[in-house]
Design goal:
The chain has about 525 residues and is mostly helical. It has 24 helices and 2 strands. The protein has a two-stranded antiparallel ribbon. Helix 1 packs parallel to helix 7, helix 15 runs antiparallel to helix 16 and helix 15 crosses helix 21. The termini are close together. The mean pLDDT is about 90.
Length: about 525
């Protein structure tokens, strides 16, 4: 039986040390997104040097990172539930920083793709550990606010990455017009410069204290005595072709189902490759979706309680998918706004890096903080109140996107991208807190991993790519070189709003009952 909260637990409060830990985690997230998003401001130079198309860039900015981030987030999320979280975060930080630095030595799309995949594996440790730590340092009434503050690192890091990437590239190319040491050019030097500081930050993370798991909710949950055995088992059930062995161990019917799913996914990927000509994108996405299916089947067999509260809870699924479509738009705008300004509006790279960077940092920070506080306020009187903030994140950016990406006026473009980013950012804390409240404390790392499966395999894997692919399809050829239509690509993002609203309407109707029955449905059979 699962432990249950006491009838009248004492009111828990976040201590000053809780806020200190939150500050450190925000700084880690800032580095996380500098390393993840710096590709955006370097995209035009990379495209020219490596001979890429817009859809190739969309793959590098999306699925190359997202698929491996999502897949390794699952076993690393489970490891966060069962092992020392500060150590896991420090190891992951050191890994993704190293792989970011190695991106600076890329000479073609393949080597850059491999480095981006490595960044994805390392960064997969960040949010499961951070979300779990925050949930054990802050009581439920402050959790959306704390998660929103943590999430502000996303926007600060994304904005700072534009400034750093543009400035380092400019200074390096000015100092070494023909290429510097080892033949490195500006965009390669930028990767090296932002990767190395993360190794020092990893040492700082190791000094944090590990909180008692579940104590803030009065439901103390001991860690597993064999965390790495569980991790290796989880890893073997999500990494093909070992997924076939895991299915076979569960019986002939499980193996048949797994093979059928693999065949369906492979057929779909093959068809999309033939339609778009983009092998890396659809091979990666197909691998990701098949692996997630395999993991979900394994979770159902081995931990039915966790499966019921995540995959078996429609409120969890629709909240995650609804927000994932918000993130699809946000990821696409975050990646393509700078290349769009540089190539379509012909704006100076240093200027656009400064303004778009500031826009992203300030707009995202304000949006996520205001949205988090508003979500907590609405939640006080309505168990589904936070979902309304996610709905706002769907509707509010539509007009700014349309105006911003049809105008030729740079000031209006900058203003509208600021508003779109701020409005979209408001949804993140609300969505994250809603999914955390739908599971038991021992499941939070796994729930976070499942939540980020949506934001990555739906949002990040497709947002940048969709814009790039539509840009290529709508573009022309000039002097034998493909010239994309980024304006059409970006405006196509508005089409996801009706789907997101339908999902969130269902979530709003089902969240209250799902949250009220968490302990009952999460009990071991």
């Amino acid at each position: 039986m699962q432990p249950t909260p006491t009838d009248s637990p004492p009111e828990k409060k976040a201590s000053s040390y809780s806020w200190y830990v939150l500050v450190v985690l925000v700084l880690v997230y800032v580095l996380n997104f500098i390393d993840r998003q710096i590709l955006s401001i370097l995209a035009v130079d990379i495209k020219k040097d490596l001979g890429l198309t817009d859809s190739d860039l969309g793959f590098l900015g999306g699925a190359a990172f997202a698929v491996f981030y999502a897949l390794f987030g699952v076993p690393l999320g489970r490891l966060a539930d069962n092992w020392n979280r500060k150590r896991l975060l420090a190891i992951g930080l050191a890994l993704w920083s190293t792989m970011t630095a190695l991106s600076g030595f890329a000479r073609n799309q393949l080597t850059l793709s491999l480095a981006r995949m490595g960044v994805g594996v390392g960064e997969a440790s960040a949010s499961p550990t951070a979300y779990s730590l925050i949930s054990d340092y802050f009581p439920k009434r402050q959790r959306a606010t704390a998660l929103a503050i943590y999430s502000s690192g996303l926007y600060i890091g994304g904005g700072v990455s534009l400034l750093i990437g543009a400035k380092i590239g400019q200074l390096w190319n000015a100092a070494y017009p023909g290429g510097g040491p080892l033949g490195l050019v500006g965009w390669q030097a930028a990767f090296l410069a932002v990767g190395i500081p993360g190794l020092l930050m990893a040492l700082w993370v190791l000094t944090l204290r590990e909180p008692v798991r579940g104590a803030m909710d009065g439901v103390e949950s001991p860690s597993s005595p064999t965390p790495f055995a569980n991790f290796l088992t989880d890893l073997s059930t999500i990494v093909p072709p070992f997924t076939l062995l895991g299915a076979w161990q569960r019986g002939p019917s499980a193996l048949a189902l797994n093979l059928a799913a693999a065949a369906v996914v492979a057929l779909f990927a093959w068809g999309m490759i033939g339609l778009t000509g983009n092998l890396p994108q659809w091979a990666s996405v197909g691998l990701g979706y098949y692996a997630v299916f395999s993991w979900a089947c394994t979770l159902k067999a081995r931990d039915p309680a966790t499966w019921r509260l995540i995959w078996g809870t429609p409120a969890f699924i629709t909240t995650t998918l609804g927000y994932s479509l918000v993130s699809l738009v946000a990821w696409a705008l975050g990646f393509w706004a700078a290349p769009y300004a540089e190539t379509v509006l012909r704006l100076d790279k240093q200027e656009l890096a400064f303004i778009l960077g500031a826009n992203g940092a300030l707009g995202g920070f304000l949006g996520v903080i205001i949205g988090g506080r508003l979500a907590d306020t609405l939640r006080a009187n309505n168990p589904a109140g936070r979902v309304l903030v996610i709905v706002f994140g769907v509707i509010a950016p539509i007009v700014p996107i349309w105006i911003g990406f049809t105008t030729e006026n740079s000031t209006l473009f900058y203003t509208m991208t600021f508003l779109a980013q701020m409005c979209g950012a408001a949804a993140l804390g609300a969505a994250a807190a809603t999914t955390q409240d739908l599971v038991l404390p021992r499941m939070r790392g796994t729930a976070t991993a499942a939540f980020f499966l949506g934001t990555t395999l739906v949002g990040l894997a497709f947002g940048p790519y969709i814009v790039g692919q539509i840009s290529d399809l709508a573009g022309t050829v000039v002097n034998g070189q493909p010239v994309g239509d980024l304006r059409t690509g970006v405006l196509s993002l508005i089409g996801v709003a009706p789907i997101a609203l339908a999902l969130l309407y269902y979530a709003y109707r089902t969240v209250p009952e799902a949250e009220a029955t968490v302990v009952e449905r999460g009990a071991d059979s």
